Amino acid sequence: MRKTTIKTIGILGAGISGIGAARLLSQEGFDCEVFEQGERVGGVWTAGYHTFGLQTPKSLYEIPDYPMPDSYPRVPSGEELQAYFENYARDTGVYDKIRFKTAVDRLEQQQDGRWTLQVTDKATGKSMWKTFDFVVVASGLYFDPYIPEFPGQEKFKGRIMHSQDYAGPALVTGRKAVVVGFGKSALDVAGEAAKFAKKLDLIYRKAHWPVPMDILDILDTRRICLTRFFSGFLPLYQRPDRWSRLLHNGFPWLVSGFWRFFEGLVKFQFSLKVCDTVPDERMEIDIFNLDFVPRREVYALMREGGINNRRATIKAFTEDGVILENGEHLECDVVIFGTGYKPRYDFLPDVFKTALEDDGVYLYRHIVHPKLSNMAFIGRAATFSNSLTSHLAAVWLVNLLKGKFQLPDHAAMLAEIDAIKAWKRSFMPAISSRATVIKLHMWNYHDELLRDAGIDPQRKKNWLLEWFSHYRPADYREVLAGIDPS
Fold this sequence. Notes:
Shape: globular
Largest sheet: 5 strands, parallel
Strand order of the largest sheet: 3-2-1-7-20
Low-confidence stretches: none
Mean pLDDT: 91
Distance between the termini: 28 Å
Strand content: 15-25%
Number of helices: 17
């Protein structure tokens, strides 16, 4: 994969990962074409439930060299984010490279390494074949809404829907509603629906630790948790730095004490005991499972009885409700599943699909499959700032294709994949997407991407700021512009 052989690149998906990759690759002279089965850019931000929006401050999710408008609130809505990404695509010249309402049905690699894509125009039904020197898969981690199946579901006379389909209060006003799940979408919908429903029950198997935007409504959580100093308290990274090893090996009681103290603050701030939502998992482990920043009113509604918490699972449906595993019957008219999304792999090569394990597909640097040449995956690394991570992954790819560094040989990439697999499985919860999880270890991951590309990962002005000042996308502005002042 030398820089002189790659000229044309097909990009699958016009979400933030796809348009970011298209912008940076085009900026470096590659001829890109983007295929998007929807009608707009933005990926998950093009559609969502009522009150859908960002769960972190905008400064953590913005593109490094394309700040969000000052007029946007601290936590933008889904509509505002979609508009922001559409403006980004237009202002960077990517928009005109996108084929909207075009589905990618099949990918075939030719003997010379190039890829042929079978694509279908959804408006006309016409299929065509397109050939590219290289393919970037940026279709994201979440695709099809997931609703589990239960006995008797077909007998239920009420309405069953996914949180994505929750269009507003009219769906629950005056009705008895059940929301299933304990992630961001489930709690967002429960908090909104509880204001209008006759009764609302929240059913969840496991509670998870909420991450406050501001600790005790005073201190911005980012100023603590998004620093290199804080990263030393996380479960050790695959290749821990000297500070982290010293802290964990010499002062394990300090690490444990820090997390128990943090848990105590969160329990107090959200009244978790009163709400019966104290998680079973330790916080430093659970944040690698399901992280979310809750809306302020959700736990208040739990305390006041506006949301009735049921730590249980559904056993079966009846005509007028659901039966829980504990035998309790809940009458309801509407059941809303905030149970996430399923990945879609059907259009990908068999080599990728056969690599699927119970916890996902592991890739080298979360970007490259060792057995798939001339192909990269952008947007498969789940962090607390996915837009930043995707753009830095695209920077890594640009530098690879320009010949500024080379991939290790096949055996070395497989060994690295085995190592990261063993590392993740040593402490991360056993979830189906574990292969993609990085979360708060994103600084370590970002550092590796930049070091590979020969770019200094330390973006602050001095060592004090480097260790104790929180990192944000704006710190990487020069990296995206192709300028490394270090």
